[in-house]
Amino acid sequence: MKVCILGAGAYGSALATVLNENNNEVVMWTRFEEEANSMTSSRECSKLPGIKLDSKIQITSDLESACKDAEFILLAIPTAFTRDVLILVKDYIGDKPLCIASKGIEQNTCMFVSDIASEILNSNKIAAISGPSFAIDVVNGVPVGLTLACKDSEITDLIYKAFCNEHFKLRPCDDIIGTEICGAIKNVIAIASGILDGMGMPESTSAMFITESVHDIKSLIQGLGGNGSTITSFAGFGDLLLTATSSKSRNYSFGHLIGSGASKEEVNEYINNTTIEGLYTLKSIHKLIENKNIEMPIIDLIDEIIYGDKEPKDLVNFLIEKP
Fold this sequence. Notes:
The protein has 323 residues and is an alpha/beta fold. It is 54% helix and 12% strand.
């Protein structure tokens, strides 16, 4: 089957390799013609240096041709740009299912990507995949597992067939909102986990923090109408464990800088040169819980450490004081 991937970054490229390996026709779209030409020529994504894309994977900046005859559309771009891209693709997507691989919450509206897609595309043919899977690991073919969330069994079967093989596993569920909450908030929790490590806190304290976070995320999922059990899925605990414990995570590394007492210049340089989804999501999730009158003190504290006058040591105090 033909699959169109919106986005030609590291994760989109990684998912393209899996789809291509399974003998699907894969077309990656970028809105930048120069990037499309460069990737077509070099067979390489700049975010995955040294990794060559198979010659059968097409890269284009022509949105209409990319979408034409595709069985489903895969969205793999930063959340901040999803609205603009979905508006662009609206005229070409028709009744094709949309599978969301982007993670995060839109800042101004506090909407999840599935909500944005439903509003713009006027469609309920929406799915989401999320789980512990760094792009480099997906490309290298190591075993990884993701949650596939969708309320339509036919769409679930379609996406499952396109992706699954001996090293790429999908576990289906019908909780799209819970899956998206997990995928978004884990980046924020990873920042805090990195702060603890930067302060020199041992693994025991990190494990305490992650466990407390699991309880808080479960409550948030339930408060927003999702299924609390989603926290135990690949999208939930699986992705949280990976992102909140690995220096490969940009969010964790950012938190480590703050916890280790890096200067403002060092922190700002990292921000300016690195995509830190957790920072974008922090503002959104903080606004969202305020709007919904949901208590989540850990989010309030992380926001105050990053943007206010709280210190990293206050995170440790919070863990001890929390009932």
